[in-house]
Amino acid sequence: MYVDVIDLKAFYGDRLGQIASRLINARIRKLWPSTTGERVLGLGYATPFLDQFTNAERRLALMPAAQGIVSWPGDNQNAAALVRDDALPLESGSIDRVIAAHCLESAENKTEMLREIWRVLAPGGRLIAVVPNRAGLWARAERTPFGHGQPFSRFQLANLLRDTMFSPAIWTRALAALPTANPLIVRNGAHWERVGSRVWPGLSGVLIVEATKLVHQRVTSRQRPARSTRQVLSPALAPTSSLRPRDFA
Fold first, then answer.
1. What sign has the CA pseudo-torsion 237, 2, 52, 15?
2. CATH superfamily ID and name for 5-243
3. Is 116 left (phi over 0), alpha (psi -120 to 50) or beta?
């Protein structure tokens, strides 16, 4: 079950969520130092991690209907849309990079979600998945969004990616700092992240993997519905000048 978008927005607006996004973004930047001229999609609640890619050709945030939606990036602009997580309203091969965050652990059908990501990625396109670490402390902290849904071990996530035609390439972790709002931890989040990464790396809150789309065979597990039959859900509060998903292709 997805965490409600209101709760996600509130978490990332709070001090603990700001520290979490900063620590995760530091790992993502090492994987993707530049996205100049590329089309970047965030799926789930990935806006805290999309903000840094201002040099991308296009950025789009697709949020599952079961989660809800908020407009993004703001300033009377909107590049967010409400969608089914197993039927993305984008052309095949139209995206260069995808960040999936707060979605895989909550999706009803994880395989179908990843197959849709595979479909919209261009050949050789890259995916970064951010998921709760099954052995981590944050997966036990229900007051954070990482304490909901199905956490993953590295073995489980690697098998899921391989089964859906992705090749896991680079693994890293984040949120080795404790999931607490204690002022001492909050004020020195980066310090405690360094300490935790050395002392208890296996207990880090999230696993982060970069995976590459494989194209040596076709995914044939089910027949895709014709595009005309796909249901596209639109944000109720989006400005009339919103970027439509079709405009992204």
1. positive
2. Vaccinia Virus protein VP39 (3.40.50.150)
3. alpha
Q: Which 3 state secondary structure label does DSSP give 131?
A: strand
Gap between the Cα atoms of 98 and 119, Å rounded: 11
Q: How many CA atoms lie within 13 A of 160 on its CB side?
A: 22
Would you place residue 236 in the very low, low, confident or very high pLDDT band (cuts 50, 70, 90)?
A: very low
The number of beta carbons lying within 10 Å of the beta carbon of residue 74 is 10
In sequence order, what DSSP letters do the residues of 15-77 get, joined into one string?
HHHHHHHHHHHHHHHHH-S--TT-EEEEEES-HHHHTT-TTSSEEEEEEETTT-----EETTE
Q: Which pLDDT does position 238 carry in this prediction?
A: 42
Cβ distance 113 to 107 under 8 Å?
yes
Indicate whether 162 pLDDT > 90: yes
Domain boundaries, the chain: 5-243
**pLDDT at residue 245 tops 50:** no
Q: Residue 75: which pLDDT band, with cuts at 50, 70 and 90? A: confident
Tell me what the mean pLDDT of segment 219-236 comes to: 47
pLDDT of residue 185: 62
Q: pTM higher than 0.90 for the full model?
A: no
Q: Are 42 and 70 a contacting pair, CB within 8 Å?
A: no
CB 127 within 8 A of CB 160: no
Question: What whole-number distance in Å separates Cα of residue 46 and Cα of residue 32?
Answer: 15
